[in-house]
């Protein structure tokens, strides 16, 4: 007898679950209602019954839409005043976008194609912010044609461009904040320094442009909750400059930088919320609309990737100890580009050995070996983990990696002819 997943794989058909009574149907992909582990188990079992199939043993993701929804509920309960606009760039997965669209939240888009994707699932243009301070002219024209009016800027040249292409746009001034404690320091590229703000706003006024508010981004992977409080103070200062020049600002956008759902120590979402919520309430009256652009927060903990050990090399170190080099079938040029671009430290866990599912469980006296894990390409930069302590694995075993939902699949290339890992969906929300 086939499991449901097996049937789905074999016959390309299976029952689908409807998530959260969404207005937008989520039905173009199969969504299971099992635990992530159960889905992985069934996928591996289905593979073992299909050994005759040529396209087997590919790395795959399990995306848990229920985890995305839990993160949404967590946001709503801890930062009720602040409206999330999901940063599509972090994971434009079609099911994630559909789910979040059905929940009624907004979207932060960085390009024409992100705007197109979001509009195509029925999101109204007013629920989009085009949050890229330097935009291609044709993309601005596209935004104008589709009434995506809200967009950011941080320099005078952008204002001249917008004046020509979309003079009625609702502009949001992106200011520079202290991102020195963030893993990705976006301030190197974007954000108007405070001492340029007056001139910039004066230019906008001279051009008769409609500046409606202020935004900032403390940097992605922010490791200091006080960076948010400091940025709110700067934003208040920028509001005051705008008001002094006669603008009627009505929106504050506090950007992204919120941690992944699995972070329970150090800088947690709870800590940030406890600082940023009261700071905003103290400095911005309730008629000011407050939005944010969380990306990683929504998706990182919702995706697990499973990789197959396609090669093993045994080496001996200077102390004559046995070590292993494992080669797996997704890597730095694929989903693990997050190591390079997003400064992530990924954590390998043993999924199966010799056909037996482990899910990271080891016997107490299990011998471990210093192991390095490499992606499948011919490039030596393609190293995922330099010194993991793992039990001895062999070709055909599986390694899984949790918290792989942000800045992974979306930036994966097909370098060396390897295709991007597919996503299987489940919903663990009960
Ligand atoms: C303008 C903007 N908003 C939001 C985000 C999302 O940031 P995070 O994933 O840290 O929440 C980014 C990330 O680069 C960004 O550039």
TrEMBL record:
InterPro entries: Ala_racemase/Decarboxylase_C, De-COase2_N, De-COase2_pyr-phos_BS, Orn/DAP/Arg_de-COase, Orn_de-COase, PLP-binding_barrel
Gene Ontology MF term list: ornithine decarboxylase activity
Matches recorded under Gene3D superfamilies: Alanine racemase, Lyase, Ornithine Decarboxylase, Chain A, domain 1
UniProt-annotated catalytic positions: 378
Needed co-factor(s): pyridoxal 5'-phosphate
Pathway(s) it belongs to: Amine and polyamine biosynthesis; putrescine biosynthesis via L-ornithine pathway; putrescine from L-ornithine: step 1/1
Location of N6-(pyridoxal phosphate)lysine modifications: 89
Domain Orn/DAP/Arg decarboxylase 2 N-terminal residue range list: 65-300
Pfam families, sorted: Orn_Arg_deC_N
Keyword presence, Lyase: yes
EC number(s) given by UniProt: 4.1.1.17
Recorded GO CC terms: cytoplasm
Assembly information from the UniProt record: Homodimer. Only the dimer is catalytically active, as the active sites are constructed of residues from both monomers.
Family from the record: Belongs to the Orn/Lys/Arg decarboxylase class-II family.
Protein name per UniProt: ornithine decarboxylase
Organism, as annotated: Phascolomyces articulosus
């Amino acid at each position: 007898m086939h499991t449901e997943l097996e049937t789905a794989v074999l016959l390309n058909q299976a029952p689908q679950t409807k998530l959260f009574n969404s207005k937008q149907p989520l039905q173009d992909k199969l969504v299971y209602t099992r635990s992530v582990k159960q889905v992985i188990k069934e996928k591996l079992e289905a593979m073992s019954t299909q050994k005759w199939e040529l396209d087997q043993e590919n790395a795959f993701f399990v995306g848990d839409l229920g985890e995305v929804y839990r993160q949404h509920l967590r946001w709503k309960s801890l930062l009720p005043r602040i409206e999330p606009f999901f940063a599509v760039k972090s994971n434009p997965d079609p099911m994630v976008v559909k789910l979040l669209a059905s929940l009624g939240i907004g979207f932060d888009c960085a390009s024409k194609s992100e705007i197109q994707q979001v509009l195509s699932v029925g999101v109204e243009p007013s629920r989009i912010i085009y949050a890229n301070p330097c935009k291609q002219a044709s993309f601005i024209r596209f935004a104008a044609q589709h009434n995506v009016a809200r967009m950011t800027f941080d320099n005078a040249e952008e204002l001249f461009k917008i004046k020509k292409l979309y003079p009625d746009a609702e502009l949001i001034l992106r200011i520079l904040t202290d991102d020195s404690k963030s893993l990705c320091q976006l301030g190197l590229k974007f954000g108007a320094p405070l001492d340029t703000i007056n001139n910039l706003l004066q230019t906008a006024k001279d051009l008769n442009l409609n500046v409606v508010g202020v935004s900032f981004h403390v940097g992605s992977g922010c490791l200091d909750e006080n960076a948010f409080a400091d940025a709110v103070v700067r934003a208040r200062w920028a509001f005051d400059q705008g008001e002094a020049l006669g603008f009627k600002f009505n929106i504050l956008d506090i950007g992204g930088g919120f941690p992944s759902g699995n972070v329970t120590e150090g800088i947690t979402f709870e800590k940030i919320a406890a600082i940023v919520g009261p700071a905003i309430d103290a400095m911005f009256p309730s008629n000011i609309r407050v939005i944010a652009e969380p990306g990683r927060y929504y998706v990182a903990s919702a995706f697990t990737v499973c990789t197959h050990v396609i090669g093993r090399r045994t080496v001996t170190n200077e102390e004559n100890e046995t070590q292993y080099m494992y080669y797996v079938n997704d890597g730095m040029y694929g989903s693990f580009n997050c190591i390079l671009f997003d400064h992530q430290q990924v954590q390998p866990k043993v999924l199966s050995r010799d056909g037996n599912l482990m899910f990271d469980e080891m016997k107490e006296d299990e011998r471990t070996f210093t192991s390095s894990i490499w992606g499948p390409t011919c490039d030596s930069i393609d190293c995922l983990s330099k010194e993991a302590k793992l039990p001895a694995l062999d070709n055909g075993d599986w390694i899984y990696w949790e918290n792989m939902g942000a800045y992974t699949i979306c930036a994966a290339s097909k370098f060396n002819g390897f295709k991007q890992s597919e996503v299987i969906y489940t919903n663990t929300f009960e």
